[in-house]
Amino acid sequence: MNAKSAFDSGNFFRRAIFAALLIGLFILHTVFSFDGLTSRTGIDQAQVGREVARGNGLTTKFIRPITLQQMIENEKEINLLHIPETYHSPLNILVYAGVLKMVGADDFENYKMEVNDKLYKLDRIIAITCATFFLIAIGLNYLLISRIFDAKIASIVALIMVFSDYMWKITQTGLPQMLMLTLFSAACYLAWRAVEAQEAERKPLVPALLSGFFFGLLALSHWMTLWIFIGYFIFACFYFRPRGVIAIGLALIMLFFIAGPIIFYWTQTGDAKGTAFHAIHAGGADNAMRQFDGTFNVKGILARTAQSTLLQISNVHNYLGGLILAPAFFLCLAHPFKRSSIAIFRWNILIMWIFASIGMGIYGLTKSQLDPNQLHLLFAPLMCGYGIALISIIWSHCPLSQQAGFLGNLHIAVILLITAAPLILHIKQLSDNKRPSTSINGVDMYSLNGPLHKVTDNEDIIISDQPWAVAWYADRHAIWLPQSYDDFSKIEAIAEGGNPIAGLHISSMSYRGEDIQTSLYKNRDLAALAYIPWITYFTRNESASIMSKNASIAPLIDPQIGRYPHKASLSGLFEPSTYYSRTKIRVRN
Predict the structure, then answer these.
(1) Three-class SS of residue 306?
(2) Beta strands per DSSP E along 78-236
(3) No. of helices (H) and no. of strands (E), the chain
(4) Fewer CB atoms < 10 Å away: N or C end of the chain?
(5) In a domain? residue 36
(6) Above 70 in pLDDT, residue 11?
(7) Which three-class secondary structure state does DSSP give residue 99?
(8) Tens digits of per-residue pLDDT, 440-489?
(9) Which of the residue ranges 100-104, 106-110, 403-407, 446-450 would you say has the lowest mean pLDDT?
(10) Count: domains in the chain
(11) 366 and 393, same structural domain?
């Protein structure tokens, strides 16, 4: 009795330490080390969520030129103040809408930034939402891995997730990845239950179909995850019995979930594929979205897919979030596990991962761990569980493994220390007051939330090089700056039928973090707009005189002949942000 009481007390003590650690890191990453959302995709989804919270339906204030082209080609009426959101999957947006409604964020005045504010408070609300899903995902992976292996391996994976600086950075982006990780973990838990049932010669129908339900929700969080479902569907067709019933059931469930968005896209723009599909062409999503040309182009797609696939292979550890043992999963494919269910389930994971990699290869993936299309991290906890199981088997043959206490678990201590190293370094930087700049990815929050909001009206349409930020922080409708003067003029012609373009907003986003050649290629004949503040400063000449002979720039901002002759500087030299207005600028309350 006493022994059991001592055991229970020790277990309670360990769980209390884990809970305190979890809460402490949650507060650290949502309060002390948080300086704003770090992903423009996350920012974009947040602003769409606010529109939904306001009762405006699935509409966006971030307008992509290609969306306008789609609507024109399909003879749809265009209202620039009510553009349908057809780029993002809807589920994360709806989650944000519910959260923002609860905190009163549908009213812009409730969260206005003051002059001394360094952070837009709604950014923190979004980050807390993402971090909450991360905590749920940790719990789900603990349940899943403890069922596949045992509680010890599950506890180690949970600690590795908690100590992963990369995972916490994801919570600060606003991306749907933490919601996706939660849904994917739930789907895999049910898929595992189905495998267990199949191996025990019980009917796997119910858990297999329930897993399809969560895969459907996952697809509504990010369309790229349809590739993961394809992998699971193939596994289910070959493994589960009865094959036909489960295969048809999974297909019908997925069709049920994606039918709504497809119908919405078709009725709103005349294109059932939505806007995101066109990111596959023109060599990149940004170029495709900014071009006023919806012609599908697959030129060079095979070469780009091969290049992206090779990039994934060479950076797989980085994409798996630095979870040190996740890549060891691939070694597990050659290990003869005693339990057939464990051996079989690894092939399910592999097939899903392969198809996810194919999808990422086709649509492209940058080297950044925080790429919006990054799906590898969804597999990281499961792969890590398999990796730890393999290392534990190898360790069991080492003489030290027979020792009690710390020495017997030395391999676990080393794994946790290596995993936690980036987090420890991050905390040390915070303690040394080496905080990052409050300007995130070239976005000066206050210049948008304050000055730009005040010099524009609710019904103004702005053309900007950072329209996602204008939509979220300034709460204004913004069209993405096209790459050519001709496309700029086409957009103006569209707007003349309703609300004319009110102004042009240019910031350091057009060149930040890039060499001048890349910037010139991305912005084409409008690239000079971004460099005007710098040229003006270093040459001591007025920008208008510098650009007076530029056939693409002068008709826009020249004080004498330009369509947007009135200028307002919104921020300083090192984060230049300028607004050129059609009419004389006046500051509104």
Answers:
(1) helix
(2) 83-84
(3) 26, 8
(4) C
(5) no
(6) yes
(7) helix
(8) 566 889 999 999 999 999 999 999 999 999 999 999 999 999 988 889 99
(9) 403-407
(10) 2
(11) yes
Percent of the chain topping pLDDT 70: 87
CA distance readout (Å), 215 to 130, 186, 193, 210, 212? 19, 9, 15, 9, 5
- One domain, residues 380 and 451: no
- Look at residues 397, 431, 465 and tell me which one is the last residue of a structural domain: 431
**DSSP string across 190-211:** HHHHHHHHHHTTS--HHHHHHH
Domain end, chosen from 377, 396, 431, is at 431
Q: Is the same domain home to 490 and 406? A: no
pLDDT of residue 6: 47
3-state secondary structure of 312: helix
Span 175-190, average pLDDT: 98
**Residue 451 lies in domain:** 445-581
- Going by pLDDT thresholds of 50, 70 and 90, the confidence category of residue 574 is low
Q: What is the pTM of this model?
A: 0.92
Give 400-456 pLDDT, tens digit per residue.
767 766 777 788 888 888 888 888 888 887 776 655 444 556 688 999 999 999 999
pLDDT more than 90, % of the chain: 56
For 70, 347, 461, 492, the CA distances from 77, given in Å and listed in that order, are: 11, 49, 17, 16
- Rounded to whole angstroms, the Cα distance separating 21 from 14 reads 11
Which two tokens mark 460? Answer: 């103004």
One domain for residues 379 and 505:
no
Instruction: Looking at the structure, tell me whether residues 422 and 522 fall in a common domain.
Output: no
Q: At how many degrees (to 10) do helices 226-239 and 243-269 cross?
A: 160
Burial of 264-283, coded b for 16+ CB within 10 Å and e otherwise, reads bbeebbebebbbbbbbbbbe
Q: In this structure, is residue 358 part of a structural domain?
A: yes
Helix ranges (H only) for 315-339 are 316-319, 329-332
- 383 found inside a domain: yes
The 3-class secondary structure across 240-281, one letter per residue, is: CCCHHHHHHHHHHHHHHHHHHHHHHHHHHHCCCCCCHHHHHC
- In angstroms, what CA-CA distances link 251 with 226, 229, 248? 11, 10, 5
Q: Say whether both 330 and 398 belong to one domain.
A: yes
Q: Residue 17, Cβ neighbours under 10 Å: how many?
A: 10
**Domain check: are 267 and 320 in the same one?**
yes
Q: Is residue 406 part of a domain?
A: yes
Residue 209 sits in the same domain as residue 325: yes
Question: Of residues 289 and 467, which shows the higher confidence score?
Answer: 467
Phi/psi-derived region of residue 222, left when phi > 0, alpha when psi is between -120 and 50, beta in every other case: beta
